[in-house]
Write a sequence for this structure.
């Protein structure tokens, strides 16, 4: 994974550089240097990125606000529509930097 792919990985999880650094257990400056290509990216970092993708965001502490927003959205949806939400939905996440996210709320999707 080169620095462009590292950025793509971070964007796919809707993380800030600070959140990505926290998730990988490094200082934000180190992460920024990897992403800009100043520092080479070590194999263990690539393995960690792979592991985060496999475990999904619900297993990581930086995603707790997103999980909270999704749960509140599901409750409101069920209240107003008398059914569980399925498929992709735009969810307002006021506790995160990106404010909105599109999430697949299908029952068989384990990422949320």
């Amino acid at each position: 994974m080169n620095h462009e792919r590292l950025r793509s990985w971070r964007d796919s999880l809707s993380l800030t550089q600070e959140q990505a650094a926290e998730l990988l257990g490094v200082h934000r400056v180190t992460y920024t240097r990897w992403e800009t290509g100043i520092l080479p990216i070590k194999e263990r970092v690539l393995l960690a990125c792979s592991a985060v993708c496999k475990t999904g965001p619900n297993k990581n502490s930086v995603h707790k606000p997103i999980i909270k927003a999704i749960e509140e959205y599901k409750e409101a949806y069920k209240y107003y529509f008398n059914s569980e939400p399925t498929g992709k939905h735009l969810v307002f996440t006021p506790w995160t930097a990106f404010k909105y996210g599109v999430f697949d709320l299908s029952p068989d999707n384990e990422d949320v």
